[in-house]
Specification:
The complex is a heterotrimer of chains A (300), B (567) and C (316). Chain B has 567 residues and is α+β, with helices and mostly antiparallel strands. Helix content of chain B is 26%, strand content 22%. Helices cover 76% and strands 0% of the residues of chain C. The chains are: A mainly alpha (300), B alpha+beta (567), C mainly alpha (316).
């Protein structure tokens, strides 16, 4: 299949799913080495996060005040923090938390985008108009400020942060889905299905969804990075996941950030981890976009 | 006043000494003071803009900002500062020892009878001309009466604050008489040098004194510009009445043309601003930053002071399991406070300095001379802690929620440490960081969690105990309520004889610490740093309740030295 | 076209009304209301104190009344007064708006000067080392948390060379140089972070355009690569520019809170943050209203400019 040619449509689900996935991975590595590298790095972090319990040399909350601010050494590969906790262990468990926040929030936000954008785009008319004005109203506000207000109301915590990030990005992202649905709606085979009397849910599920799948995949990957970064932004304001949870965001805000000249490893390591992960997922997403749907525009 | 009885407490001065480093501090330059220049300051409240410019808003911070422009009846006698051979550091938030007070707008005062105080006002003090508001005129007794009347009539008034005053009258243009209902130990603070006792010109009745553009008073500065969240710019008043005596010469003040309070929220930026001399004085350098700043910026002058704010984890005694004294004491024994002071704070903290501050000479009693059961609370003893828990019926511990101010990195750092100690006796905590306003109002509306990690100012010897342990008080996070304790607090409050009052307060302090309504925590030191061109200054912080105005008016800048250092 | 504009303008009203209602209610939902904060200094505060203060602040009215009154005043351009300072909200916002706008504009210019060349280049040289390097730079800037980068810039130069950007705000017309030297560092950080989005857009669009028939024709005619790119492709470059403006509009007007905080810039973001922490409801509502209105107008302008740039766009 000539992906380089945008005129070719990615229609309906194929019976040869497995073959296509393998095929796709091969193409990814062949045509998009940077994206493939990004994907690999991200997978490594996923694995590190998943195996944090096995890999971490110490407990994340093993306090050892005598060894506080210990620079990286054989004993503490990435040094220790203000309470003498092992940075390596915290980074590993932090990877897990970042992955959880990134995946859950991005996943949920994508679902919101798809439901909102899908219905709005497919049904059109007054419903569309009303939903779009709501989305307008929502998108008017600066994201971070909105987060501050909402977190202040619901209180900080892993679940709250995931839900709030999902809402924030989900509503905004619905615009992109809506655009794709609107153009997919005009395809002749959908008109055909409609004239054959197929129900709306059936058409949405069977025809529209597969058609906009590439958009959804790319949207999801970019959201993962954005959600991880936003959690860090909240941590900067002290409203991230509460201590002693070792999130990267909280590790590079607070006193570690203020006193980064005292123990450069304190703020540099989580900062670099965060940057690398968000970078990897982004270049991976870009590669997916190149391969799946070169027509996509304007995804934040 | 004799001041003699203060001499018997030299051993206590250890905590209050200004520890100075470098070359120029202490030894004043022989050169005469110079005029001019701009003084940029990161104050104690560097993250907070003025919340109000009007004392009738009853906001604690007004005096810090508007206190540059408005004057009060009393102020600190800055000639008695340690730097000039006196005995006072002038750093308490709301306390001036009686001997260190001088008249500002008051010239003299005397008790006509036990309930009548006659205050003679200073003559020749001018309110400046302010187009649209007032012409230049002399300050008089009517202004005093008007200011206090307005205070009482404000919708934000705290009725209890001036309850002890029955009425005040202007006997003649230069005499004010305060008629007391009963004596109050804080009388000199409450209308003399207190948070809300600024004297405003009564022409302000015509305009809105809350609006910063209308602020005008008899003080050394006028307000030129206010950018909330950024800066407050004060400009020198050339015709200010007061003089600073240096080597026998009386100099008109202020020396500097401008004082700018810089509001900087970010701690890293604050330290950068000091290091690059964008601020000349920084009053709250955290101890962690000190060594490195000394190394990279050796020119800086330093003073260390024990914070005028205590910290603790309040335990709600109105809830299970903290209604049981054994549980509260167990939690105290389980926390290694010495380790916190020595390792978490790197030795930059006093094990015991709250609720009485060592600066409160005569009221403060050091831990060593306290009863055994008090000393025990500051000794790490997890074994006994477990045993107490078992006695109280919690052999396997329990779990409770602790709220913390999300914007306080020191506390969010410390909580996991406390959690670690408590885990060793089977007590688990759930940490809930709250945005500051939400955090504060959780306490003021009494909806806070069973554990509440907070800071609370000492203010002064009587307030410290009253506000924290008086029944129904707003700042009583442990919900302490004991009618007998309330009665004793009241007795101390109205006790006229200071020696007796000191004895009463010392006893009250011992009794409350023993009840362990809090997990008592060490009080950290802070540092003040200033560039060497800042002269006639030694790290004094307050010349009245949170009011630094008179201090800043006396600082001068050695422009030549500043140039020599490359700024 | 005219009908379209009219319809969009008419839609502004309900959208803003709805948004302002949400904000109006939301800020009152945050735990810790303004009365609690104002009374927090009291020894003992009673219900009576609360009532008296609520009445003095006009917060004793039922919520719908308060909201309607606020809307009524807002329609006449009066956004009320700060509950703490009693200064007019409009005035405070007008003080801050130009500052935020300047920061946003600078960031935008920087974003575009990086994004468009990188986007075009990486499209023409798709999947080469040059593509990867330039694109990586842009995405790296997006991936770095801005507060972290900002702190690095704030801390290390001051340690090494005793240098930091100026931290005292000076208005542009008072002293352009001093003003710019404070604004430029945060603007670069913000701009580079924004550039990744536009870079991607430019690149995608270029890739698409380069595959179009007329480009193939142009190439077949033997036109030089440079001419093809500039004549046909780059003309479309304005579309990502205006799209970026639309996307970043909230940031442009007041979303740069973190940069404002680290670099001590008294913009809309800090005003809002301060107001939220003091529960100064009129300021919060006012800021959101002004930001919302600006964003909606900018987005309308953006949508309209698509029509000017691309004749294929039709408004319905």
């Amino acid at each position: 299949m000539a992906v380089a040619d945008p005129q070719v449509e990615l229609v309906g689900p194929s019976r040869r799913e497995r073959g296509r996935v393998a095929d796709f991975v091969v193409r990814l590595f062949r045509d998009k080495p940077l994206g493939a590298a990004g994907g690999t790095v991200f997978m490594l972090f996923l694995i590190a996060g998943a195996l944090a319990g096995l890999l971490a040399p110490r407990g994340i909350n093993d306090i050892d005040l005598v060894n506080r601010f210990h620079p990286p050494s054989w004993e503490f590969l990435l040094g220790t923090d203000r309470l003498g906790r092992d940075m390596l262990s915290r980074i590993l468990f932090g990877a897990r938390l970042s992955v959880i926040v990134g995946f859950c929030a991005a996943g949920l936000s994508t679902v919101i985008s798809v439901v909102l954008g899908g219905l709005s785009g497919y049904l059109g008319g007054r419903f569309d108009m009303a939903v779009q004005r709501l989305v307008d109203a929502w998108m008017v506000f600066p994201g971070l400020v909105l987060l501050i207000v909402v977190i202040s109301v619901v209180g900080p915590g892993l679940t709250q942060i995931i839900v709030v990030l999902a809402l924030l990005y989900g509503v905004g992202g619905s615009r992109i889905i809506r655009g794709s649905v609107v153009s997919a709606r005009e395809h002749t085979y959908i008109h055909a299905a409609q004239s054959l009397g197929a129900g709306t849910p059936f058409i949405l599920w069977r025809h529209i969804l597969p058609n906009i799948m590439p958009v959804i995949i790319v949207l999801f990957t970019t959201r993962v990075g954005a959600c991880i970064l936003s959690e860090a932004g909240l941590a900067f304001l002290g409203l991230g996941i509460p201590p002693p949870a070792p999130t990267w965001g909280s590790m590079l805000s607070g006193s570690a950030r203020t006193y980064m000249y005292l123990g450069p490893w304190l703020a540099l390591i989580p900062g670099i981890c965060l940057t690398v992960v968000v970078y990897s997922i982004n270049v991976f997403g870009d590669a997916l976009r190149d391969l799946l749907d070169p027509r996509m525009r304007g995804i934040r | 006043m004799t001041g003699r009885r203060w001499a018997r407490a030299p051993c206590l001065v250890v905590c209050t000494l200004a520890v100075s480093f470098g070359t120029a501090a202490g030894a004043e330059d022989p050169q005469p003071p110079q005029y001019g220049g701009t003084l940029n300051i990161g104050t104690v409240y560097v993250t907070l803009s003025a919340l109000s410019w009007d004392p009738a808003d009853w906001n604690w911070k007004t005096n810090h900002d508007a206190g540059m422009i408005y004057e009060q009846l009393f102020a600190a006698d800055l000639e008695q500062t340690i730097r000039r051979g006196g005995r006072y550091p002038f750093r308490s938030e709301g306390w001036l020892p009686p001997e260190s007070i001088r008249g500002e707008l008051a010239e003299t005062w005397e008790w006509q009878d036990p309930l009548t105080l006659v205050v003679r006002l200073r003559r020749g003090v001018l309110f400046p001309e302010r187009p649209g508001i007032m012409a230049e005129r002399e300050f008089d007794a009517e202004d005093v009466v008007w200011s206090f009347t307005r205070l009482a009539e404000s919708p934000k008034a705290q009725p209890s604050y001036l309850e002890h005053i029955e009425r005040l009258e202007a006997r003649d243009p230069h005499t004010v008489v305060f008629h007391f209902r009963e004596f109050n130990a804080e009388w000199d603070l409450r209308f003399g040098y207190g948070y809300y006792s600024s004297i405003l010109p009564r022409e302000l009745a015509k305009v809105d004194p809350r609006d910063w553009r209308n602020v005008t008073g008899s003080g050394p500065f006028r307000l030129e510009r206010f950018v909330p969240g950024n800066s407050e710019t004060f400009v020198r008043r050339p015709d200010y009445w007061d003089r600073e005596r240096i080597d026998g010469v009386a100099y008109p003040i202020p020396f500097v043309n401008r004082v700018i309070y810089r509001t900087i929220k970010d701690q890293a930026t604050q330290q950068t601003a000091l290091r690059t001399a964008k601020i000349d004085i920084f009053e709250v350098v955290p101890w962690l930053a000190v060594d490195y700043l000394k190394k990279t910026t050796p020119e800086l002058q330093w003073a260390r002071y024990l914070g005028s704010t205590g910290q603790f984890m309040a335990l709600r005694v109105d809830q299970k399991p903290f209604d049981d004294l054994r549980v509260r004491r167990a939690l105290n024994l389980a926390v290694d406070k010495r380790e916190i002071a020595e390792l978490f704070y790197g030795g930059n903290a006093e094990l015991f300095a709250y609720p009485m501050h060592p600066d409160f000479i005569g009221y403060f009693e050091p831990l060593e001379s306290m009863p055994k059961s008090i000393q025990e609370l500051f000794r790490y003893d997890p074994k006994k802690a477990k045993q107490l828990l078992a006695e109280a019926g919690y052999p396997n511990g329990f779990r409770f929620k602790v709220q913390v101010n999300a914007a306080d990195p020191d506390h969010t750092d410390m909580l996991p440490l406390l959690a670690g100690y408590l885990a060793k006796i089977g007590v688990e905590i759930e940490i809930e960081p709250l945005e500051y306003a939400a955090f504060l109002s959780a306490m003021t509306t009494k909806t806070h969690a069973a554990g509440y990690l907070m800071r609370s100012g000492h203010v002064n010897p009587t307030t410290s105990l009253r506000k924290s342990f008086g029944t129904g008080q707003t700042w009583n996070p442990s919900m302490w309520s004991d009618p007998d304790y309330d009665r004793r607090l009241k007795e101390a409050q109205i006790e006229r004889d200071e020696a007796t009052r000191q004895r009463m307060i010392r006893a009250l302090t011992v009794d409350i610490i023993d009840q362990a309504p809090y997990i008592w925590l060490p009080t950290p030191y802070n540092y003040i740093a200033w560039w060497p061109w800042v002269k006639n200054y030694g790290g004094e912080l307050r010349a009245g309740a949170v009011r630094p105005g008179p201090i800043y008016a006396r600082i001068w800048i050695d422009q030549e030295q500043k140039r020599r250092l490359g700024f | 076209m005219r009908a379209y504009i009219l319809r969009r303008l008419l839609a502004l009203g309900p959208t803003l009304l709805f948004a302002s209602l949400i904000v109006f209610l939301a800020v009152r939902l945050i735990p810790g209301d303004v009365i609690d904060l104002m009374l927090s200094q009291n020894d003992i505060s009673t219900g009576q104190d609360r009532e008296r203060l609520a009445a003095a602040l006009g917060l004793d009215q039922p919520m719908p009344t308060q909201y309607l009154r606020w809307v009524g005043h807002a329609l006449t351009g009066d956004l009320g007064r700060s509950l703490w300072q009693n200064t007019p909200v409009t005035e405070q916002i007008l003080d801050r708006l130009p500052i935020s706008f300047e920061l946003g504009l600078l960031a935008l210019v920087i974003a575009l000067t990086f994004a468009i060349p990188i986007g075009v280049y990486s499209a023409i040289r798709q999947d080469t080392v040059g593509d990867y390097l330039t694109r990586s730079f842009s995405i790296l800037m997006l991936a770095m948390p801005s507060f972290w980068l900002g702190t690095l810039v704030m801390v290390f130069p001051s340690v090494w060379w005793r240098w930091s950007p100026p931290l005292e705000y000076v208005a542009f017309f008072e002293n352009p140089l001093a003003n710019l030297s404070q604004m430029i560092v945060p603007a670069i950080i913000l701009g580079l972070a924004m550039s990744a989005v536009t870079m991607r857009m430019t690149r995608t669009m270029m890739l698409e355009v380069l595959r179009q028939d007329y480009i193939r024709t142009a190439r077949a005619k033997g036109l030089s690569e440079w001419l093809v790119v500039t004549r046909h492709a780059l003309r479309n470059g304005l579309i990502p520019v205006v799209t970026l403006v639309g996307l970043q509009a909230p940031l442009l007007i007041g979303g740069a809170v973190i940069m404002e905080q680290i670099f001590v810039i008294p913009g809309m973001g800090l005003l809002l943050l301060e107001a939220v922490s003091q529960r100064d409801y009129p300021i919060i509502s006012g800021v959101f209203l002004v930001v919302g209105l600006s964003v909606l107008l900018i987005n309308l302008a953006v949508d309209l400019s698509y029509g000017l740039l691309d004749p294929n766009v039709r408004y319905r």
